[in-house]
Design a protein that fits this description.
By secondary structure, the chain is α/β, with parallel strands linked by helices. 31% of the residues lie in helices and 18% in strands. It folds into 2 domains: 334 residues, Alpha/Beta hydrolase fold, catalytic domain (Rossmann fold, 3-Layer(aba) Sandwich); 90 residues, no CATH class. It is built from 13 helices and 13 strands. The strands form 2 sheets. Strands 1, 2, 3, 4, 5, 6, 7, 8, 11, 12 and 13 form an 11-stranded mixed β-sheet that branches. The chain has a two-stranded antiparallel sheet with strand order 9-10. Helix 7 crosses helix 8. The protein is globular and about 60 Å long.
């Protein structure tokens, strides 16, 4: 069935707790009206013990590709009956990532234990975990016309995420949970989407907002560090040109990651056609572990005296390989422009205009070898009086310290990253969206 035929589907009872909600309906706590939407497909999978993973595709806009894939990871007393949760969080992945690949890696790799994922960790502790895959991540690899990707960037993804949150709140209400606002966690590109969504919500009455707390993980919307600003400004015009003309997508960048992963898996000792002087496995590690201009890297590496990567410090090499192989096929070029423009500051973008009006509690989590302290700058531009910062710092040298993707993939991520996130959610569980708490906290650096 093509996407246009799917648009004709009405809201249907695909799951016992997934009921139709009229566009004008509101929940008992005054949540925003749910947008008109229809489901395409759904599935329920028991991932471990009493934890189930629901996945369903939802048409939530007029465009041919205005579809998001929503996820729910939740403990159940019996099939389709969630246990009473203490709170709820909505997870936004990076780009190019799928929800499962970064938040539930055991579903794309046999390396980690079945329960080693932030989504299952939070669900085990009675947090109702929701999330989504962006519509552009679901575009079929055989697609040739990308006109629909023109102008598909942070603002559109934030709008679609807002609709997905509205649906999630309604489903929580009909499945016996508190339908109130969510904590919103964004990782990497998802940080930009989270800030844009929370900013846009400040124009609405507090009772109609979906976000009661923000957890930006290792990325910045606005930049303070001179190196980061300089790097963003050096590519902003190039990115704008790419977003203004066909094909409006950056497949070559995505193919680079997938190609490195595939070659490392299929011929690890073969000479790399991408990185001169390295074999395919070393090329994959080099891409992930070698620091960029700002000393940012995806995964911390171990190097020999010639600075050739020999292994990864905190994440299994095969898991890193599988993550890259699982990347979606396309990425809108507009995303690259939006992120560089917001960081550089020389080109006005509308989705950062309301940062100064955001007042909800904020937990910034960074990796010393990733965005690190730089990602905390955006939080300081808000008017929140409850800002907590957690930086995972394990090495004296930032070039080999805990990396960007290590935050969700590392063997010890549960202790270093997920536990502080859980503790913060629990501590802010009863705080309504409009409340400001007169405290500024800093958890500082976490180590072994």
């Amino acid at each position: 069935m093509d996407i246009h035929a799917r648009r004709s589907l009405t809201v249907c009872l695909l799951l016992p707790w997934f009921v139709a909600v009229a566009p004008s309906a509101t929940t008992s706590r005054g949540s925003a009206p749910v947008a008109d939407f229809s489901t395409i497909a759904s599935e329920r999978t028991v991932v471990l013990g009493d934890i189930a993973h629901y996945r369903f595709d939802v048409v939530i806009g007029p465009g041919a590709f205005d579809v998001v894939r929503m996820h729910r990871v939740v403990r159940e007393s019996e099939p389709h009956r969630p246990v009473r949760s203490s709170d709820a969080v909505f997870l936004l992945p990076g780009a190019p990532n799928f929800f499962e690949s970064i938040f539930m890696p055991p579903l794309i790799s046999s390396v980690p234990e079945r329960d080693r994922s932030v989504a299952m960790f939070l669900a085990r502790h009675d947090i109702d975990v929701w999330g989504m895959d962006y519509g552009w991540a679901l575009v079929p690899p055989t697609t040739t016309d990308f006109g629909f990707m023109k102008n598909w960037g942070v603002e559109k993804d934030a709008q679609l995420a807002g609709v997905a949150l509205s649906i999630a709140r309604s489903v929580r209400g009909v499945s016996g949970q508190d339908p109130g606002p969510f904590h919103l966690l964004g990782f990497s590109y998802g940080v930009s989407v989270a800030w844009a969504l929370a900013g846009a919500e400040t124009l609405r009455p507090a009772s109609l907002r979906h976000v009661k707390g923000i957890i930006p993980v290792d990325s910045a919307l606005k930049c303070e560090e001179k190196q980061a600003v300089s790097l963003a400004c050096s590519v902003v015009e190039k990115n704008r040109a790419a977003s203004d003309k066909p094909p409006y997508e950056s497949r070559s960048g995505v193919d680079y990651y997938k190609r490195l992963g595939d070659l490392a898996a299929e011929s690890p000792d073969g000479r790399s056609e991408i990185s001169a002087g390295l074999n395919n496995l070393e090329a994959l590690m080099h891409m992930g572990a070698s620091s960029r201009a700002t000393e940012f890297h995806f995964v911390a590496g171990e190097f020999d005296e010639k600075m050739t990567p020999k292994n990864l410090r905190y994440t299994e090499l095969r898991l890193w390989m599988d993550l890259n192989r699982s990347a979606p096929p396309y990425l809108p070029a507009q995303i690259g422009h939006d992120r560089s423009a917001a960081c550089c500051g020389t080109i006005d973008v509308p989705f950062d205009d309301r940062l100064g009006d955001i007042a909800v509690p904020i937990l910034y989590v960074g990796a010393a070898g990733g965005a690190g302290e730089g990602g905390a700058y955006t939080a300081r531009l808000t008017r929140s009086k409850d800002v907590t910062t957690v930086i995972v710092r394990l090495q004296p040298d930032r070039k080999v310290d805990f990396g960007h993707a290590d935050l969700f993939l590392a063997k010890d991520a549960e202790r270093l990253v997920w536990r502080p996130i859980l503790d913060w959610i629990k501590a802010h569980g009863s705080m309504p969206a409009a409340t400001e708490k007169d405290v500024t906290a800093s958890r500082g650096a976490l180590g072994p």
